Amino acid sequence: MMKKNMDLHTFIKMNLSVLDRLYDEKLGAFNRKIYAYNKLVPLVKPFGRFGVIPFHFIHLPRLYESIKIDPTKDLKHIGHGCVGFLWYIIMLGEKHRDYQAYQNKVKSCIRFLSSYQDPEGYLRCKYVPTNHQEMGTDFRSIAESTNAFLWAAQIACNLNLFKERVINERIDSALKWLLNNKKFLISQEKARLVYALAQVYGLRNDRDLLVSMESIGQDLISELTHYRSFSYFSDNIDAVGALSILYLFTKNPLFRDFSRRLVHNLIKTQGSEGTWRWRFRRSNGKYIPLLDVTYTVHQLGMAPFALTLYLSICNINDLSYVAESIQKGILWVAEKRAFTEHFIIRSFSGLSGAIFEFEQRSYEPGLNILGLLSYNLFKHNEKLDPLNLIFPWAVDKKGYTSL
């Protein structure tokens, strides 16, 4: 059970407050500068395989060239912020006093994102190094931003937020680019493409689109079975959500069974206090302590959303087992107060045995809201149609009156 003084509604409100403060009226979009204390802050190249993409404001020892980010162009997070806001206003209902204001913010953000779209369909995403010369990002960053735009914009269109044809044209353009380039996407982005495509399919019921989604599901299973001796939490958890969606659409038991396998492997790696391990060995499920990181968005956003989707398709024997893991992950954040904007996460060892501490100054409130609302929706609706976790606007909103 969640503690009374730190229930799901409290978490949702806290993340909503952060997301609301991120909205820049002058810019017309979420602005990440709030996490940098209203200035461009030095960042380091992330510790990993993706070059110079600063996914989070992380301070590590100065092992890599310092760069700076233009926070207003962190397009992926703007898209995810829209998804969080959209789910929230769905739960509020049209009669709520804040419904129109939040709706207008989402529409403004999506128009802002579309202004960065290239004629080929992808979203351009630029970062600024310390010498202030423009520097492009790698393919993953472009794909993440385009995916986030498609996901948010299609949900908005499903809710009839846009009347103008140009937004639908931009959605089609992004959709075409992502499908044409899906073989180049890493596992996590393939899974999130399924999240976005599910929204498109829900509106169009296009058989060819469903075939493309099934193909992506098959790719995910192949990659997560054979690729590398180690695995990342983010690749696995988003695959759980994507494969659960594919099972709901296709009833192919392969998607359900592999999703179950991933869930059981992930829960084996979960720390005793509820932390989700960032990287672990595929052979035995043991985490790799070189970089022992716990992200708030894993605890509150990605895990609750994907595991709740799995709860909607799993057999009854898994229900309490998986629900307990979701709650443990959320409670870890409550007990460590990891929801604050400025928080020392933990130490990690490696690099000749040195031990460091680092700060995570940022999390993704949009995805946190998505995950927490999904889990709360499941908890308060015993006879919930699983499809309502993908298309929640038709669901009974009981349990949300205090939001």
How does this structure look, described?
- The two termini are 20 Å apart.
- About 19% of the residues have low confidence.
- The longest helix is centred in the last third of the chain and has 21 residues.
- A hairpin with a 3-residue loop joins β9 and β10.
- This protein has 403 residues and is α+β, with helices and mostly antiparallel strands.
- Helix content is 52%, strand content 9%.
- It has a single domain, classed as Glycosyltransferase (Alpha/alpha barrel).
- It has 12 helices and 10 strands.
- Strands 3-4-5-6 form a 4-stranded antiparallel beta sheet, with no helix packed on it. Strands 1-2 form a two-stranded antiparallel ribbon.
- α3 runs antiparallel to α4, α4 packs across α5 and α10 runs antiparallel to α11.
Tell me what the CATH architecture is.
Alpha/alpha barrel
By oligomeric state, this entry counts as: single chain
The end-to-end distance, rounded to whole angstroms, is 20 Å
Low-confidence stretches: 33-73, 127-136, 338-362
Provide mean pLDDT, rounded.
75
Arrangement of strands in the largest sheet: 3-4-5-6
Output the radius of gyration.
20 Å
Topology:
Elements: H1 8-22, E1 23-24, E2 29-30, E3 42-44, E4 66-68, H2 75-92, H3 99-114, E5 126-129, E6 135-136, H4 139-158, H5 165-180, H6 187-204, H7 207-226, E7 230-232, H8 233-250, H9 253-269, E8 279-281, H10 296-311, H11 316-336, E9 343-350, E10 354-360, H12 365-379
Antiparallel strand pairs: 1-2, 3-4, 4-5, 5-6, 7-8, 9-10
Helix pairs in contact: 1-12, 2-3, 2-4, 2-12, 3-4, 4-5, 4-6, 6-7, 6-8, 7-8, 8-9, 8-10, 10-11, 10-12
